[in-house]
Each structure stands twice: as structure tokens, then as C-alpha cells.
Specification:
With about 375 residues, the protein is of the alpha/beta class. It has 12 helices and 18 strands. The chain has a 7-stranded parallel β-sheet, sandwiched between helices. A 7-stranded mixed β-sheet has the order 10-11-12-7-15-16-18, covered by helices on one side. A hairpin with a 2-residue loop joins β8 and β9. α1 packs across α11 and α11 crosses α12. It is globular. The termini are far apart.
Length: about 375
């Protein structure tokens, strides 16, 4: 009998994961948006139209399933994860909620739950790669540069969002943490811009974002770690103007007697500008550098990813690179190959060579290919 999986969220990434998992498991997709569910229903995938913010109903709904896959907006992520863990269900999640997932660690261990968090592309695959090399060498430096961008640059933002607009805006306002000489440095997002050339893409602009997340806690022995987001050059100035004017603020303001959060208005205005039009293509680019000592010799590894929209299926690159990492790990959890209990950030997946190789192979079978170079 096939194992049963429920995917919470049927957006651009959640729907791709549901379709991928349906090849091997009995899958149900749950979302409040009927339009999002209709496409999956037409493919023969079971769907549930429901409010995922209704936690008592969620707890009851997930009981029949062997695994829960989380793909809700970040502001819902923590409470959804807590509910799943309280229900005693294993989970693989890509909601990238801003809170510390380890506050749920004791609960997960008590309930004997495996909960893999942040299991996307970055955070996600970058962590898996670092976790793998951390077991084989003494790592001195980890750098991850990553971005998802439209092929056609359209004024003014030259950007398109695959995720929830509010989650994207969080990248622009959440303080960015990185590690330098064992010290955690905090700077504002969008700081320390650099221009960097990528083969097949051209020149992109990198800036500090808070993508290290769990690595700050789980890899305290690595003296230098940083993650930076990539956009087309010039984008940062627009975002700084909006942020510093207050358009990204969560603090309510009074407008004609109504209490309004500026970020809610901004998200509504930006979403039409950021939404990919039918037929538009995008790509994901990532470069990971890991430097240190291996077998008493200096060593550097580089991983390069340049993935584009799959034209044959219309599957977006960011959905592929994020979603297939998550579904690969879902297979590991469902098979029992990865069964560590508690909160498990993706770097734990990379610790075993067999798990690491499975994920890399799984992605390559779906034409998401990481090219490795050694120096």
C-alpha cells in the first residue's frame, strides 16, 4: 500500500511538490484557494479546500497521513509546524518562518517526530552541501550566493516572485546575520552590495540577507559563513527607498480613520508587478564556496547551479529547485532512511554520504544539476 502524504499549500511550489510526490505516493493537496487546487484536481490528485490557519481543524485533518509537507507562507509556518508536531506527524517544511524552529525541538523529540525545516534551495540544498563537507574536512569559510530572477528584465523592479510577496519583502527588512572570525555580525538587509559575474547570466548584484538561519546555531565551529541574495544591478536602490520610507513596515498607521499596516498595502501593490505572466521564463542561479583543510591540505569546493524554467512542463525553476529538494528529503523520511528525531535543519541531511548522494541524484534525475569543482 502506498504511503499517504498531505501537502499544505498548493501555490507555485506546493503544487509542483504535490505532482512530484504523486508519482510514488498517495498525495492530497490542501489549500483555501480553489483556483490553486483546480489544476491538481484535473491531474487526479486529491484536494482539500480548507483554511490552514484553523489549527484544530488542521490537527484533525492530518491524522490519516504518514507525512506532512509544509508550503504555507512564512507567517503561518511556525503555528502549522507546531500543530503537526503536536499531532505526532513527521514533516518536511519549506515555509521559511522567521521564528527559531528549535523552540519546537523538545516537543518534536517528546512526540518522536522528525521535522525537517527550511528544506528548499537556500536555505536548504546549500545547508545539505555544507553538512556533507563539514563531516569530511575542517571548514574555514562557507559562502552562498543565490537568486531567482526573470529572464526578461522589466522596469522598475526587474524581479518576479514565486513565493508569497510578504515572504519576499521579509528578505528586504529582516536584519542579516553572518559569521566573521567566529563572531555573529548583524547588518541591515540590502547592505554590502557587490557586483559579481555569472557565466550564462552576466553581472548580478549581491547583498546581505538572513539566509544562514540554523547554520549559526549548528555550525559554531566554522569561523566564516555568509549568505547573500542576488538581483539584477540597480534593484537595491528601489527597495531601499521603499523600505526607508516605511512601505515595508508592520507598524499600523492611521489612514482616514482606518488602522492599516503599510506592508499589507505594499504587498497588494507589488504583487501584480512581481507576478510572472503566462509564458514568462525565469532562472535560479547559485554559487557555493567551501574552503578549509582536507587531509592536511588546503581545499576549496565550488558548487554551481544555473537552472531555468522547464519549457516542456512549464514548471518554474524556483519551484523546481526548491520543491524537488523538499520532495527528495520527503522520500528519505518516508523510507525511514532519515529518521533523526526533533527539529532537523537540512545540514543534518548532508551528514551521511548515502543521504547526500540520494538528494543530489534525485535532483539530477529531474534535471536540477549542481556542478562541483575542486581546487
Amino acid at each position: 500500500m502506498k504511503k499517504k502524504v498531505i501537502v499544505l499549500g498548493a501555490g507555485l511550489v506546493g503544487s509542483v511538490m504535490a505532482k512530484d510526490l504523486a508519482k510514488d505516493f498517495e498525495v492530497t493537496a490542501a489549500d483555501q484557494n480553489e483556483e490553486a487546487l483546480s489544476h491538481l484536481r484535473s491531474l487526479g490528485i486529491s484536494v482539500l479546500q480548507t483554511d490552514l490557519a484553523d489549527l484544530p481543524a488542521l490537527k484533525k485533518m492530518i491524522q490519516p497521513y504518514d507525512l506532512v509537507v509544509g508550503a504555507v507562507p512564512g507567517f503561518m509556518g511556525l503555528k502549522n509546524a507546531q500543530t503537526v508536531i503536536e499531532a505526532g506527524k513527521n514533516m518536511v517544511d519549506i515555509s521559511f518562518f522567521p521564528e527559531d524552529p528549535f523552540q519546537l525541538d523538545e516537543l518534536a523529540k517528546k512526540n518522536k517526530v522528525t521535522a525537517v525545516t527550511d528544506c528548499g534551495v537556500a536555505p536548504g540544498m546549500g545547508n545539505i552541501i555544507l553538512g556533507y563537507h563539514d563531516k569530511l574536512m575542517k571548514v574555514d569559510t562557507y559562502e552562498c550566493l543565490v537568486g531567482g530572477l526573470p529572464v526578461v528584465r522589466e522596469w522598475p523592479y526587474e524581479y518576479k516572485a514565486v513565493f508569497s510577496p510578504i515572504d519576499v519583502i521579509e528578505e528586504y527588512i529582516r536584519p542579516a546575520r553572518y559569521v566573521q572570525h567566529h563572531q555573529v555580525i548583524t547588518k541591515e538587509a540590502l547592505s554590502d552590495a557587490e557586483l559579481i559575474h555569472f557565466n550564462g547570466v552576466g553581472t548580478l548584484e549581491s547583498w546581505n540577507s538572513d539566509g544562514l538561519r540554523s547554520l549559526i546555531r549548528t555550525m559554531p565551529h566554522i569561523p566564516n559563513m555568509i549568505e547573500k541574495t542576488l538581483r539584477y544591478p540597480g534593484c537595491i536602490e528601489y527597495l531601499r527607498v521603499l523600505r526607508d520610507t516605511g512601505f515595508f513596515s508592520h507598524q499600523e498607521i492611521n489612514v482616514r480613520g482606518l488602522a492599516i499596516k503599510p506592508i499589507d498595502v505594499t504587498a497588494q501593490l507589488l504583487f501584480p508587478k512581481w507576478k510572472l505572466k503566462p509564458g514568462e521564463e525565469e532562472f535560479t542561479v547559485m554559487r557555493i564556496r567551501i574552503e578549509g583543510w582536507e587531509n592536511n591540505q588546503p581545499k576549496r569546493y565550488e558548487y554551481h547551479l544555473l537552472d531555468r524554467t522547464d519549457l516542456s512542463s512549464g514548471t518554474l525553476s524556483m519551484a523546481r529547485t526548491t520543491g524537488y529538494t523538499c520532495t527528495a528529503v520527503a522520500h528519505l523520511v518516508l523510507s525511514g532512511q532519515f529518521n533523526r528525531k526533533g527539529i532537523c535543519p537540512p545540514e543534518y541531511i548532508g551528514e551521511k554520504e548515502t543521504d547526500f548522494s540520494f538528494v543530489v541524484r534525485y535532483l539530477a534525475e529531474r534535471n536540477v544539476i549542481y556542478t562541483k569543482r575542486e581546487y
